[in-house]
Amino acid sequence: MKNITFPRDFLWGASSSSYQIEGALDADGRGPCIWDTFTAKGGIADGSTAQVACDHYHRWPEDVALMKAAGFNAYRFSIAWPRIFPTGTGTVNAKGLDFYDRLVDGLLAAGIRPLACLYHWDLPQPLEDRGGWQGREVIGPFADYAAAVAARLADRVKDWMMLNEPNVVAIFGYGVGEQAPGLKLGEVGILKALHHQNLAQGQALRAINAAHPGLTLGTVINLQPCRAESAKPEDVAAAARWDAVWNRVALDGVMHGRIPPLLADKMADFVLPGDAETIGYPIDLLGINYYSRMTMKYETGHPFDAWWGDAHCDRWTGMGWPVQPDGLYDLLAELKKDYGNPAVFIAENGAAYDDTVEADGEIHDGERVAFLREHLAAVGRAVADGCNVKGYLCWSLLDNFEWAFGLSKRFGIVGVDYRTLKRTPKDSYRFFRDVVKNGRL
């Protein structure tokens, strides 16, 4: 056993997203989003909805108290675009901003640093009706939305993340149709959605910086090292293509203002002169969501002739994802080597398991404790080796509405009884609390 000590100014906390926890989908003038439509069309595996979810919209003081009790000094939350602009554009809905005013003030009173994320997948449905991330009409509205939110909150919120996981939005929402808006547009649909999110992000970064210089600006990308299932040339090539799509379009876009060479020909028809300059912007902080590596193989019938292969792993989460904490160390080391060691924080890291409430009323989630311990050890090792890691936020504070899986998958370090909405801190909450308070693993 070895003690791992983290920097004294390390950010510790949790992340969440508006649609997954807030509920109150009809409250205070909120408009419809693509996930409301996707749910109404039967896209949710267990038939549930996010109408109530965790009811964080009304119970946020209880959730902030849980964070304070755990010693958290940071919380990444997302703002619901359809609460601020119910149709995606037009007049600001002041009541929507009022909610985030209250939340931010509550966080600051508890000594918790708010990190606001502007887009965690809840695109207003009227903008999707105009083409969504497949076209350029969404770019200006996103920048206007970013400016409106910052105008209200930037006096207190100093950390702003533009997007969350644009690669997941593009691939699963527009490429293969497993998530909202449920479109199966293949390779071109994926790349268009990625590129237009990059463009919207670039415009939003400029809009916020112009009005509020000196803020910490960034974005959040799900980054996963892509490895080939075998040494076969076709598998190696498939892994390289998938790496370009999954990691490099978003990462190289904001970091370097460039299109990955492997994809330049496929994107030539919709990348216009000046786009590279727009998508490249010097961010201050990169959020990384890490869950596992991706082991890819050549397989036709899927976008880019690449799909998931044998992960060569002996442990799996309740999502069927491999448990590979060493991949997080590899990722951080690669960012240091290939991207100039940018300032990063772990914006999401966690695992779903089939938790049960035991006879003592507690949730003894030993597998999640082991998952967090091993991934925190990987982060600590990377920090010791000089990687510029500023913090670790687990996913997630609460069990919540897990997108197309509905309420059936539980990621929280705090359990939620969806009938009573009672919060029950799990063993993982107590483990993480102790790490945070001691600054040591």
Describe the structure.
This protein is an alpha/beta fold. The chain has a single domain, classed as TIM Barrel (Alpha-Beta Barrel), CATH 3.20.20. The protein contains 15 helices and 13 strands. An eight-stranded parallel β-barrel has the order 1-2-3-4-5-7-10-11, surrounded by five helices. Strands 6-8-9 form a three-stranded mixed beta sheet, with helices on one face. The protein is globular and about 60 Å long. The mean pLDDT is 97.
Low-confidence stretches: none
If helices are DSSP runs of H or I spanning 4 or more residues, what is the number of helices?
15
Radius of gyration: 20 Å
- Chain-averaged pLDDT: 97
In what order do the strands lie side by side in the largest sheet?
Answer: 1-2-3-4-5-7-10-11
* CATH fold-level label: TIM Barrel
Q: State the share of residues found in helices, binned by percent.
A: 40-55%
Structural class: alpha/beta
Relevant CATH superfamily:
Glycosidases
SSE string, helix = H, strand = E?
A: EHHHEHHEHHEHHEEHHHEEEHEHEEEH
CATH class: Alpha Beta
- The strand count comes to 13
Amino-to-carboxy terminus distance: 10 Å
Shape: globular
Short summary:
By secondary structure, the chain is α/β, with parallel strands linked by helices. The protein has helices at residues 18-21, 34-40, 56-69, 81-84, 94-109, 125-129, 139-153, 166-175, 186-211, 233-256, 264-267, 275-279, 325-338, 366-384, 427-438; strands at 11-15, 74-78, 113-119, 159-164, 216-222, 226-228, 285-289, 294-298, 306-308, 344-348, 389-394, 414-416, 423-425.
